[in-house]
Design brief:
Layout lengths: L2 H22 L13 E5 L4 E2 L6 E2 L3 H13 L3 E6 L23 H8 L1 H8 L2 E2 L10 E4 L5 H4 L4 H12 L3 E5 L22 E2 L4 H11 L8 H5 L6 E2 L9 E4 L2 E4 L5 H15 L1
Parallel strand pairs: 1-4, 1-6, 4-5, 6-7, 7-11, 8-9
Antiparallel strand pairs: 2-3, 10-11
């Protein structure tokens, strides 16, 4: 390894260490409100892809980047999963992974922080989560949600209940598949008549080429276009893009975590 490359890697690791400290440091920048907002993250439990047998989980930056934003505001965060317990992020999503950004010191620091590692090893079971204990829910995507979230009616009901309660309901990347199923108290799909985004066909095409197989069991964009009066929108592939439609906030893919979190901060600030 060349000296410039060694210096670069040391700089990245040093920056990641600083980020890891900031992830849990009690002196983080505090929100102006005396009552910090309470965010519920939902991530997938580990699974195996039916298409090629690879281990799959959640997308690291989709959790790390919003966590960084909310933590700097002093907000309270809980990580839950359908079954609780151990979770795993997709190896392809790490800064050194196939789809990762080597300059992503936020994700690198997040994954390296021992308190975060402990939380990811012991997530809260979704059945224990109550709407009244949180101000917003954020469904995190990754390679596993199409396998683990599609038939999870408990998750679909919880997402709808947050929205019905006048709270922020957010989803990112493949996490937005909940909008194919979540319904409001009136029985209608939340996606009906709404503007939202999620992982696109163009992005699925890239994954399929890399994997050498049609990787996911279905595509969100295809399914979204079958919903009456819904408006599925998108930005350029793998570029930050997020949409707010009232209390419903969605982000397109793993590059959109910061943008999605910023819309949530704005919405929660307006609601304060």
């Amino acid at each position: 390894m060349s000296k410039p490359e060694i210096s670069r890697r040391r700089a990245l690791l040093g920056a990641a260490g600083s980020v890891a400290l900031a992830m849990t440091h009690s002196g983080a920048v505090r929100a102006q409100s005396s009552a910090p907002k309470r965010i519920l993250f939902v991530v997938s439990n580990p699974a195996t892809a039916a298409s090629n047998g690879m281990p799959i989980g959640f997308w690291l930056p989709e959790l790390a980047h919003p966590w960084f934003v909310f933590n700097r505001l002093g907000w309270t965060m809980t990580i839950a999963s359908p079954q609780g317990g151990q979770t795993r992020f997709d190896e392809m999503s790490t800064p050194d992974g196939r789809f990762g950004n080597p300059l992503d010191v936020i994700s690198r620091g997040f994954a390296a922080a021992p308190p975060i590692q402990a939380l990811l090893a012991d997530t809260k079971p979704l059945p224990e989560m109550r709407v009244e204990d949180h101000d917003a829910i954020m469904i995190i995507g990754g390679l596993a949600p199409p396998t683990t979230f599609t038939d999870d009616t408990r998750l679909h009901r919880l997402f709808g209940a947050f929205h019905d309660a006048g709270k922020i309901a957010a989803a990112l990347c493949h996490g937005s598949l909940v909008l194919l199923h979540a319904r409001g108290a009136d029985g209608r799909l939340l996606a009906e008549g709404r503007r939202w985004t999620g992982y696109t066909n163009a992005e699925e095409d890239v994954v399929d080429r890399v994997m050498g197989v049609r990787f996911q069991p279905f595509r969100i964009e295809d399914e979204a276009r079958r919903i009456a009066r819904t408006e599925f929108v998108q930005g350029p592939a793998y570029r930050p893009f997020a949409v707010a439609d009232g209390r419903l906030i969605t982000g397109q893919q793993g590059s959109s975590g910061l943008a999605t979190a910023e819309l949530m901060v704005a919405a929660l600030s307006d609601a304060a």
